[in-house]
C-alpha cells in the first residue's frame, strides 16, 4: 500500500484507538520502512519504564487507572458488566466533570471546533 501511495522509502504511521493494532503489525512486519509511529489510545500504562514521571505527576487518573487495571485483571467479569449495564453512563460522567482532563487537554479542547463531549459552558466553568 505504501508503495502504491508513493510514500517513499520511509514514512510515519499513526494508529488511533483500535487502529493501533495495525500500527503494531507494521512495527512487527515492516520496521525497516517506518520513520516513526504514534499510538493514540485512551488508556495509558503508567508502569511503562519509558513514561517519565514528570508527565504524569499531576495526573490524578494515574491511581484510578492502576486500580481499574488491577480490578479488571482479578475480576474479568466486571468489564462485561460495566460495558453492558445501563445504570451509569460514562459519557455523562465525563460531560459533567471536566476534571478528567488536565490543563493542556482543556486548552486543546477550547480550540477544537465541534468537540461533542463537553459543551462550551462546561469548558468555561472548568477554568
TrEMBL record:
Superkingdom as given in the UniProt entry: Eukaryota
InterPro entries the UniProt entry points to: AB_hydrolase_fold
Alphabetized SUPFAM superfamilies for the sequence: alpha/beta-Hydrolases
Taxonomic lineage from the root: Eukaryota, Viridiplantae, Streptophyta, Embryophyta, Tracheophyta
Signal peptide (UniProt feature, chain positions): none
The name this protein goes by in its record: AB hydrolase-1 domain-containing protein
